[in-house]
Amino acid sequence: MLHLKNDVSFRDFRACCTFIFLLQIQSVGVFLEQSKLICSHQPIVALAGDDVILPCHLEPAISAAHWRVEWTKPGLDPQYVHVHQDGRLLYEIQNPSYNFRTRLFVDELEQGNVSMKIFRVRVSDEGKYRCFIPSVQEEAFVHLSVGSVSSPVIEVTSITSRRVVLQCESKGWYPEPEVLWLDGEGKLLPAGPTETVRGPDGLYTVSSRVTVEKRHSNSFTCRVQQKIINQTRERHIDITGGFIEHPAEDADRWSIVLFLVIFIVVVLFAFLCYSIFFFNLQT
Ligand SMILES: *[C@@H]1O[C@H](CO)[C@@H](O)[C@H](O)[C@H]1NC(C)=O
Ligand SMILES: *[C@@H]1O[C@H](CO)[C@@H](O)[C@H](O)[C@H]1NC(C)=O
User: Fold this and answer.
1) Does the CB atom of residue 40 touch ligand 1 within 6 A?
2) What does DSSP say about strands 243-244 and 102-104: parallel, antiparallel, or unpaired?
């Protein structure tokens, strides 16, 4: 009897312990689960050469000051962009292309802010970044888009009495932009297909031609735009009274050169005659 009673109470005791134990595991679990690592869901967009912040933080805020914080770029080799441990950057394992270009906000780690700044961002920095905090087994991703832009240039490739062919070219774009032609009232002009060439640096050169009637409008705009990076660059050209301003400037320059050449020839010739005349006098 006594033996059985003991047995029962032991079982009760064990069940009770197990219950408390589970409760504790659960509460620890809840505690660990409480802070989530949250990075920007919006892609971060920057232009080549800019400084950029990839925002990530622990929510609710807990200190990450004494934890290892790993920023990596999946697919990169070595993949470590910035690893912070024992209060410093583990420079030895950092991918060399990020040397001296990254920082965490060490003063803000206390508030759970593990954002990383990249200086002088490059087109090759584009992609998905992973932030990982091993102590809480939390990871999150943030996408960086890096654009590159440049101003277009317009050239007159042919002129007849009625028509002018204009060519617009713009080098050094990323991602691939589109080219539009607009008339003086901002209306879209039908243009030929855009030619696109991608250089070894990964940047795009685009060009497009348009044929315009001289009488229609005097002002034309070439617009190069890239929607992902929300960038637009434009160039205007004015064709006034059948003359085109830019080539007219060139023509002026050429007539000055021609005038100078004639002037120098005349001076040299005069000097030569003069010399011969005196030479003849002396002999
Ligand atoms: C983290 O720190 C950076 C740099 O000071 C700041 O721009 C960003 O807003 C901070 N993020 C949060 C969530 O406080
Ligand atoms: C795009 O850029 C223009 C001016 O540069 C700005 O007014 C606009 O808010 C931007 N749009 C987005 C979606 O960033």
Assistant:
1) no
2) unpaired
